[in-house]
């Protein structure tokens, strides 16, 4: 009896986990900053890039098509992560330093147990805010 209850609880846990998929198209984007139009590299034509929302325990799959002038040709990659052991609002970003300023976005990992597991009262509304430094040097070096 005890082992069947354990199996049932385990199945509920597994059934609650989801596979969250995103497609990132990395390419050029013209933005107006510091009173000038500049061409930057961005994801899905957005700055900051798309917000990813998952629950702890989900599997995150990101399909990336690189159409930026870097790497010279179109490359496609698929990244797969198991989101375990982390909760909160983080950021995803390019690991090339001069692209990190424009190729980034919010990664929101919600607790598996829902809002009741948050260590604060449930907010009325949530808005992710991504702070970035855009300087003439960054813009000049990103195209
Ligand atoms: Cu990093």
TrEMBL record:
This is Plastocyanin-like domain-containing protein. It holds the Pfam family Cu-oxidase_3. It comes from the Eukaryota. Belongs to the multicopper oxidase family. Keywords: Signal. Residues 1-17 form the signal peptide. The keyword Signal applies. Transmembrane segments: none annotated. PANTHER family: LACCASE-7 (PTHR11709:SF9), MULTI-COPPER OXIDASE (PTHR11709). The keyword Ion transport does not apply. InterPro entries: Cu-oxidase-like_N (IPR011707), Cu-oxidase_fam (IPR045087), Cupredoxin (IPR008972). One of its GO terms (molecular function) is copper ion binding. Residues 26-76, 77-112 form the Plastocyanin-like domain.
